[in-house]
Amino acid sequence: MGGIRKFSDKYIPVSGPANRSQRSTAKEAILWLLNQRPHSTVQISEHFGLDLEVVNQLVDELLQADRIQWTKNKDTLLVRDTLGRWWEGGSKGR
Question: What percent of the residues of the chain are helix, what percent strand, and what percent coil, each to the nearest 5?
Answer without folding.
Answer: 50, 5, 40
